[in-house]
Amino acid sequence: MTAAAKWATGVAGPPAWTRRPANLATAVTAELVQRIVRGIHPSGSPLPPEPVLCETFSVSRTVVREAVKILQEKGLVQVRQGTGTMVTPPAMWNMLDQLVLGATIAEDESLAILDDLVVTRRVLESDMANLAARLADDETVERLRALVDQMDELVDDPDSYHNHDRMFHDTVMQASGNRIARAVVRALESQVINTARYVGRTERALCVASNHGHRRIYERIAAHDPAGAAETMFTHITEAWVVRRSGPGEPTRLRR
Question: Is residue 123 domain-shared with residue 211, that is, in the same domain?
């Protein structure tokens, strides 16, 4: 068995790499992130010691040390003098990190993480819609109108429709001038935009209903109605997720 008897029978064997990666530290980090998120190395437990990790991944101590340093930066482990490298509780993990968020979403059967992602989106985007209604110039308003009209013509083409959908939301975010909030939303969406669990159902009727929401948002921004723009954005993001959501349990985390 070795690898210190599969780390004292915690049994986490070598990674299923089809070929040896070019960047070993990055590959080892990604594998360890997945194992920590899955609970193979649970919170509060020590990460396997260096010799075990070296044997498990067939890499040098230098590679392992670099991977552990990256895990520290992501908030997944803490190196403690005398006790080794300890896996931290999920509350300490950097959920904006690409690897951490992606692995957490993949392991979450309850959809709670996706529900939280939507809650975060709607809070930030409703505030940005409020700002957009105050700040949008004629060119931005015309851009939003054109996108809504184009989406009316794309309801039978879900891929094109969703590309325009993202452009509409991004135009509102840019109009707000809040670069930090926009960056957070874009970082979150980049992890889920092509996943079936987030995209959910895509039939024509849902695209039609979704674009009614976009049109209401556009109308409130064009009318320079900040409160109305914020409310319609909040409602649109909530309703669009609820109708396409497909998974166990009720989306109670979305209730306000």
Answer: yes
For residue 100, being part of any structural domain is answered with: no
Q: What number of other Cβ atoms are within 10 A of residue 62's Cβ? A: 11
Residue 211's closest CA among 168, 249, 182, 175? 168
Domain limits for position 42: 3-92
Q: What are the pLDDT digits (tens) for 30-65?
A: 999 999 999 999 999 999 999 999 999 999 999 999
Q: Model pTM?
A: 0.82
Q: Specify whether 151 is located in the same domain as 73.
A: no
The radius of gyration of the chain's CA atoms, rounded to the nearest angstrom, is 22
Cβ(28)–Cβ(67) below 8 Å: yes
CA distance 230 to 126: 4
Kindly state whether residue 68 falls inside one of the protein's structural domains: yes
162 in the same domain as 127: yes
Q: 230 and 129 in contact (C-beta within 8 Å)?
A: yes
Same domain, 185 and 228: yes
pLDDT tens-digit readout, 154-212: 999 998 999 999 999 999 999 999 999 999 999 998 888 777 788 877 789 999 999 99
Q: Write down how long the chain is.
A: 256
User: How would you classify residue 82: left for phi > 0, otherwise alpha for psi between -120 and 50, otherwise beta?
Assistant: left
Indicate whether 171 and 242 sit together in one domain: yes
249 & 133 share domain: yes
- Give dist(CA 233, CA 86) in Å, integer: 42
